[in-house]
Structure formats: C-alpha cells, structure tokens
Design brief:
The protein contains 3 helices and 8 strands; from the N terminus they run αββαββββαββ. With 173 residues, the chain is of the alpha+beta class. It folds into 2 domains: 96 residues, Glycoprotein, Type 4 Pilin, CATH 3.30.700.20; 62 residues, 2-Layer Sandwich (Dna Ligase, domain 1), CATH 3.30.1490.
C-alpha cells in the first residue's frame, strides 16, 4: 500500500484500534499541522470502489482535527446506518479518504455553487443535509442541492438556506 497522508493513516489506525476491541484510539502526541486546529471532518470508506461507510461533522465537535478524525473514522466503520459494520478482516481492502471542511458560508442562490469546487449544506429550520464536493455522478448544482435536500427530508419546493464550503481531501476519491 502506498504511503498514506497523516489524516488517512490516523483514520486507519483509529478504526483498527477500535475493531481490535480497544475502544477509541488515544490521540497521538506531536500532531502535524493539518491535524491541529478545529474543523468539520468527513471520513469515507470504500471497498473495491464502492462506498462502505461515510460519517462526518459539519463543524468541529472535538478539541482538534485529530480527535474529529478518530471519532468519525470509527463512526464511518461502525455506525453508518446504510451498511453493516466493518469487520477487522476488511481493513486491508478499504480505501480511506478524509475531508477537512472549511467554515461554511451562506450563499444567496444556486449561482454561487459549483458541485466540483464546493460542498453544499441545505437547511430548513432544524433539518439540514450536507453533500461533499466533487462526487462521482453529481455533475450539476441542481443534483447536488436535490440530494442534500433529500438527505435532510426537505421536500422539493420548500424554501431553504444554502451554505457552501470547500474541503481539503486526503486519500483516494
């Protein structure tokens, strides 16, 4: 396996540690710069090119990015309701990517969005849905917003607030 970036290596170690029955990985000392600070983080797991788990946070919920990755890697592997939990023997087959989100900014309409460059958050009251940028099969702003609305349980035609964000993506797409 090619050498993995620090965020991807941390996500992999975290999931391995958890699946070995050791609970959450203690945060390592001497964190590289990209694991310091606070941000929302998504961890995506793929097996043979197919999604196997993806969980993340819109904004920071942990003291730093490293802790966010540790928690979300475990959640992606064990708590994504769309999939059975990952088993330890699957770990060598998993491609892991980590997306570190910028601070979301509110936008006035679809013209300010680009599904290749920006992720999107749609909100209506307490309901919200997020879709990461540059996803295979999502080519238009309308598709991107529609999927995010569906995730949030917001009906087509309902008024929404729109936010966009960028990501720093580590690992395979």
């Amino acid at each position: 396996m090619a050498s993995e970036s620090a965020p991807v290596a941390l996500a992999r170690r975290s999931l391995e540690h958890y699946l070995a029955g050791n609970g959450y990985l203690p945060e390592p000392a001497g964190l590289p710069a990209e694991l310091q600070g606070q941000a929302g983080v998504f961890v995506s797991l793929k097996k043979r090119g197919e999604l196997r788990g993806c969980i993340g946070t819109f904004g920071p919920t942990q003291p730093d990015i490293a802790a966010e990755i540790i928690r979300n890697a475990v959640s992606a592997g064990t708590q994504d309701p769309r999939f059975w939990p990952v088993e330890a023997d699957e770990l060598p087959e998993l491609d892991i990517s980590v997306d570190i989100l910028s601070e979301p900014e509110r936008v006035d309409g679809l013209a300010a969005l680009d599904p290749k460059e920006y992720g999107v958050i749609v909100r209506r009251g307490r309901r919200s849905g997020l879709l990461l940028p540059d996803l295979a099969g999502v080519d238009t702003v309308e598709e991107q917003v529609g999927i995010a609305m569906q995730k949030a349980g917001i009906a087509s035609g309902e008024e929404i607030e729109l936010y966009r964000f960028t990501v720093t993506r580590y690992g395979k797409e």
